[in-house]
TrEMBL record:
Name of the molecule in the record: Putative two-component system response regulator
Keyword set includes Protein transport: no
Biological source species: Phycicoccus elongatus Lp2
Region annotation (Disordered) ranges: 1-20
Record keywords: Phosphoprotein
Superkingdom, natural source: Bacteria
Length: 152
């Protein structure tokens, strides 16, 4: 199975119900070939990474083609890519998405180590968090990107 979806609510991002004074509701696309990494990211970000940000839907992908198909369909406010995924790493995939998708949603990449920040810059990522994943860093990065996100 290449992808799966987890919904937290029935409200769509960008809808009139999500435009009120409540938290910014976002839909997240998460890519990693490792289910343990995907579970770790979801647990680190949580449902409310910040007071003003609520994740209403997670869509998980285990392959690069599934990521491309999901983004082509639209509706994602934020993308999280695992730089250590194989055979297609999240860093190369991020650069491809940023170069090929008009108004690509903000992208958070997960790198193998803190010293890989230069690779994240090359990939055109909007934010980077290194492994091992620190839940506070993940939540802060997700919230920061979600605040500036627009529904694709």
């Amino acid at each position: 199975m290449a992808s799966s979806t987890h919904s937290a609510a029935a409200i769509e991002p960008g809808s009139a119900a999500s435009a009120g004074a409540g938290p910014r509701q976002v839909s997240v696309l998460l890519y990693s070939d490792d289910i343990t990494t995907r579970d770790s990211v979801r647990a680190a970000a949580g449902r409310r990474p910040a007071r003003d940000v609520e994740i209403i839907r997670w869509h998980e992908c285990a392959t690069a083609p599934a990521v491309t198909a999901a983004l082509d369909a639209g509706g994602y406010d934020l993308v999280i890519l695992d730089g250590e995924a194989a055979p297609t790493g999240g860093l190369g995939l991020c650069r491809e998405l940023k170069n090929e998708i008009y108004n690509c949603p903000p992208v958070l990449v997960l790198t193998g180590r803190p010293q890989d920040g230069w690779l994240a810059a090359w990939s055109l990522a909007d934010a980077v968090v290194p492994h091992p994943l620190d839940p506070i860093q993940v939540a802060e990065a997700v919230a920061s990107l979600a605040r500036g996100a627009r529904s694709a």
